[in-house]
Amino acid sequence: MLGPARRVVFCALVCCSVYARASSCPPRCECSEAAHTVKCVSRDLRTVPVGIPGYARNLFITGNHIGRVGPGCFRGLDNVTNLSLSGNRISEVESHTFAALRSLRYLDLSNNQLTNIHPEGFSMHNHSLRELNLSRALYNHSAVMDLAASLRLSSLGALQGLDLSGNGLIFLPPRTFSRLGRLRRLQLSNNSLVAIHNGTFWGLGELEQLDLTFNALKSIPEEGLRELDDLPAAASLLLGDNPFTCTCAIEPFALWLNRSQGRVRDAEGLVCAFPAVMRNVSLLAAATRTLGCHQRAAGADMALQTSYVFLGIVLGLVGLVFLFVLYLNRKGIKKRVNDARDACREVWEGYHYRYEIDSDPRLSQVSVSADA
Question: How far is CA 172 from the centre of its chain?
Fold first, then answer.
């Protein structure tokens, strides 16, 4: 049995040991218990460091050389609400990587080189995540299929902000965001999107802001316009700095833009990029005052109708002249017809005579004797 003094000393040593472990800081990291923050910035780390204190709410592991992250990297970090893994050259996100972070609200994976994202890479248990930053995070645009699959199978139903800017995306698979029903902000700027198709933004029933600036949109066809119209009425759109081509094909988009100026926040700044004669012309004015597609179409129809009328008149006159010539030469034509008829009759009689001779042997002998 330990004496009272010894028990006090023993308890003090145990408490100090526990406190030391709780307050320990991983090598090459900086920890602040008062600020609940741990920073492991540009320390040439190859893996997520172990021994991160449990008090950490803000965890910054950035600018390192961490190739992959998995579920074992963040165990025991129930208090982390903000996690930044930016600029680590991460290429792989394994299944349920962030599931242990039960309080996580902000996740930053920007400036990485993701090539392999497990379909359940973003699956979490308690739907706590509110902001996900994946700007400049994909190694190339081909990783969009993995990303779309992971977003469709994720448990990010409470996500409010998603940043996919700067990833060189050429297209977005249909229903990529179908499980993000509470998303309010979607950043798609600085990509290479060439079109908006049916189902691109399906399921975004609470969207408030969609940023499509600095993409490769030459126009938005009627299918894409219907997709934009299906977004919530309060959603604001940004479409600036796209290479819009102002031919008659863009007229439906230009007319839609005039009707939707309240939703498109930068509508007044949208201009034509091609052709050269239309460069920097406002898209709001392009359909009605500059392109003049309806006027040209009406003029073309009128010119075509005039051509048909003129052709009919010419053909009618030619027909009348032909009939008049026939009338003037009716006697000569009749004589030529009679002569041709008589000539045909003589030829026919000659052929008939030769046929009778060839078919009757007796007449054939008489004909031969007469010839001798």
Answer: 5
pLDDT at 11: 42
Write out the DSSP string of 193-209.
Answer: -----TTTTTT-TT--E
Instruction: Report yes or no on 366 lying in a domain.
Output: no
* Beta strand 209-211 pairing with 106-108: unpaired
Does position 16 have pLDDT exceeding 50, yes or no? no
Q: What is the mean pLDDT of the chain?
A: 85
Report the helix count and the strand count for the chain, using DSSP H and E.
8, 13
Q: How far is it, in rounded angstroms, from Cα 215 to Cα 46?
A: 35
Cβ neighbors of 234 (< 8 A, separation 6 or more) are: 208
Asked if residue 15 has pLDDT above 70, the reply is no
Question: Strands (DSSP E) along 134-260, which ranges?
Answer: 161-163, 185-187, 209-211, 236-238
pLDDT tens profile 22-35: 458 999 999 999 99
Instruction: Tell me how far apart the alpha carbons of residues 300 and 305 are, in angstroms, rounded to a whole number.
Output: 9
Strand partners, 245: 274
Q: Which of 13, 126, 111, 2 is nearest to 63 (CA)?
A: 111
Domain boundary (105, 128, 151) is at: 128
CA 177/CA 165 separation, integer angstroms: 15
Cα–Cα distance measured from residue 268 to residue 283, given in angstroms and rounded to the nearest whole number: 8
Last residue of a domain, one of 77, 106, 128: 128
3-state secondary structure of 366: helix
Residue with tokens 């000659």: 350
In a domain, 325, yes or no: no
Joined tokens for residue 264: 């498109």
Closest CA to 28 of 11, 15, 14, 44: 44
Give the structural domain span for 299.
Answer: 160-309
